[in-house]
Design goal:
Two copies of one chain form a homodimer.
Chain A lengths: L6 E3 L5 E11 L4 E7 L15 E2 L2 E3 L8 H13 L9 E6 L10 E9 L2 H5 L7 E5 L10 H15 L5 H5 L3 E3 H12 L5 H11 L2 E3 L14 E4 L1 H9 L7
Parallel strand pairs in A: 2-7
Antiparallel strand pairs in A: 2-3, 2-5, 3-4, 3-8, 6-7, 9-11, 10-11
The structure holds a DNA duplex (30 and 30 nucleotides).
Chain lengths: ~240, ~240
DNA sequence: GGTTTTTGTGTAATTTTTACGCAAAGATAA
DNA sequence: TTATCTTTGCGTAAAAATTACACAAAAACC
């Protein structure tokens, strides 16, 4: 199949892919969605068969309006997860000349945050699976590196944007929120100071608690108060921890 | 020249370019290096001839180790300016399907900071020129957009890294440093508070001033104290203004 | 010598951040 | 039923950082 192709260029062109780091949070740990690599019908050859990898795939030159559209389309095809283009944040370009053994492939990595509970059901479990952040298997290509960079990007973004809320269910407790921040920022906060700061920012609204029993004292439930957050953000605000 | 090419692929491939936003600072204003577009021997057709644009060009698939190497190589070829791969920071990918009228081209934008005085001489003035940030001409392609994003990235990075110092000469005055920060952050600071904060951070060392006359009172000269900055940065520090 | 521009300097008031202890809610075990 | 354990909620005092603010010295120009 040496000259099976029909797309001809005067100069060599690289292949371009979009890869997706999809983060979830189960109330306890940060999670990442990975796929098991199989044979890919579109690629001229398939590499790393049977290994775990980030979901992603090739830019469709004549169809994908932007590389983020590639990310959204491939994520849907490979995991069943349906996200919009706006859900993806660009992490960066990975372009090492030999990062793919088949041909020159540069990839634009993206990350996305999902409410885990609400998407677990719609995920195609045959090919995809969620892994705890502290228990990630070895990944194909340079996907380990991409994952690390994506995490550091998330870690940075959380200072400026309410990314935490994209990972939590609509209704959540203060301890859950704090644990999430601690997981991402890899630090511990004083519970009282954390609550004070949140109260000061006024970006949470208390939910009429239907007293949902648990193992200990029932925590108060909150909802994210988007209006207030947007107002704060508009005036050059930044969430600090 | 419809089928002049000799590079054949089974699926369509995009062209990939690296574009460079090179910032300089003349002690008064932020500047950007632009080139005047001419005929490009490498491209199958040339677009936007005669217009100003960001320096940049096509990834050489078999030669450029990473896309940052493309940026460095093209900057050198187009402007004469010789920077290392490490001098470039990635801004992001611009991949709109019709951003280049010739074919599908996605570009990875980068920015770099240079000590203006020391590079002005080595810049190829026939093709390249420095423009004040507040006096940028209309640019080819989507380069206006790239420029805006690059600036906002610089604005963000200056909180975490001593980027200011890359734009200043080795030896500089406190008012110069303040003016630079004000230009990038688009705010005004109180002179005394700015000086106090800098003193508190202890990242400047006073230089034995050879009393270099000027228009008014001779300002004290400083040099950036890298050791102290690195130490601070290592312990999770961040430059705030 | 007077005028103008630019630079350097310190302190008090305010705001933000940090540190810290105890009581109530709910579950489980004795 | 009571004791015990874990988890949650709450407020204040000390420390640190940020802000606001005024005057004198250096140099150039007239």
């Amino acid at each position: 199949m040496a000259t099976k192709g029909k797309y001809i260029y005067e100069y060599p062109h690289p292949a371009v892919t979009a890869d997706c780091v999809v983060f979830g949070y189960d109330g306890k740990e940060l999670k990442v969605l990975l796929i098991k690599r199989g044979k890919e019908p579109e690629a001229s050859a398939t590499a790393y068969v049977g290994e775990w990898a980030l979901p992603g795939g090739f830019l469709e030159v004549e169809k994908d309006k932007t590389i983020a559209h590639t990310a959204a389309r491939e994520l849907k095809e490979e995991t069943g997860l349906r996200l919009t283009v706006k859900d993806f944040k660009e992490v960066g370009t990975f372009s090492d000349i030999h990062r793919d053994p088949r041909e020159r492939v540069i990839t634009i990595a993206h990350y996305a945050l999902v409410k885990l509970a609400q998407v677990e059901a719609s995920t195609d479990a045959d090919r995809a699976d969620w892994f705890s952040w502290n228990d990630i298997p070895h990944l194909a290509f340079d996907h380990d590196k991409i994952l690390r960079v994506a995490f550091s990007r998330l870690k940075r973004d959380i200072h400026f944007e309410p990314v935490g809320f994209d990972l939590l269910p609509e209704v959540f407790t203060l301890p859950q929120l704090q644990n999430l921040y601690e997981s991402i920022l890899e630090v511990k906060f004083d519970r009282r100071n954390f609550a004070n700061k949140m109260k000061h920012y006024a970006i949470l609204t208390e939910v009429e608690s239907p007293t949902p029993r648990r193992g200990t004292r029932t925590p108060v439930l909150y909802r994210f108060y988007k209006e207030n957050y947007d107002r704060l953000k508009g005036s050059g605000f930044q969430l600090e921890f």
